[in-house]
Amino acid sequence: MSTSFIDVGTNRLSHRIHLWPIDKLVPYERNPRTHSAVQIKQIADSILQFGFVAPILVDDQAGIIAGHGRLEAAKSLAMEKVPVVKLTGLSEKLKRAYLIADNRLAENAGWDEDLLSEELKALESEDFQVGVLGFSENELEALLEFEASTDNERADQIAFAALQNADHQSAG
């Protein structure tokens, strides 16, 4: 198995986060990932709530490798500078491949609905506004009413709410 993507012995890892002006960044024009207006708002709300905790990844020419949605959210917030991590030593092929992998790999994760429901309930009981977490109102309602993993009907309701949210975002 090749370690060409993760080779800590090379200069592919950046050890510093920089603040760069937004207008310095160059979005990748062939980025296949799309971001609806709803999702850009969700990312912006997340930045406001938690801070800009996930820097934009750029190459030597300030080309965005990962973080196109974060850049659009920053623009919507009228931010002048954003945190970036400059990755060096990646070939054009590896940059394009990482752009796809970065987006796709996150989609492959799942949720433990029992634990998710418990965490959401705990946050809500502590007066945290769970609406900023990226779930639709329908998903939150289903998750906050979720009782046990043995309740297949409730799990189906959560899955249905997620599908409704996906349809809503793709229309946005």
Question: Which key terms come to mind for this protein?
Answer:
alpha+beta; Conserved hypothetical protein from pyrococcus furiosus pfu- 392566-001, ParB domain; four-stranded mixed β-sheet; 6 helices; elongated
Structure, briefly:
The chain has helices spanning 37-50, 68-76, 92-107, 113-125, 137-145, 152-171; strands at residues 18-21, 56-58, 64-66, 81-86. With 172 residues, it is of the alpha+beta class.
Descriptive notes:
The chain is an alpha+beta fold and 172 residues long. It has 6 helices and 4 strands; from the N terminus they run E-H-E-E-H-E-H-H-H-H. The chain has a 4-stranded mixed β-sheet. A hairpin with a 5-residue loop joins strand 2 and strand 3. The radius of gyration is 19 Å and the shape is elongated. The model is unreliable at 1-9 (pLDDT under 50).
User: How many strand elements?
Assistant: 4
Strand content: 5-15%
Mean pLDDT: 85
Sum up the overall morphology in one term: elongated
The radius of gyration is 19 Å
- Secondary-structure-based class equals alpha+beta
Give the count of helical stretches: 6
Number of domains: 2
Strand order of the largest sheet: 1-4-2-3
- How does the major sheet shape up? 4 strands, mixed
Termini gap: 41 Å
- In the CATH hierarchy, the architecture of the largest domain is Alpha-Beta Complex
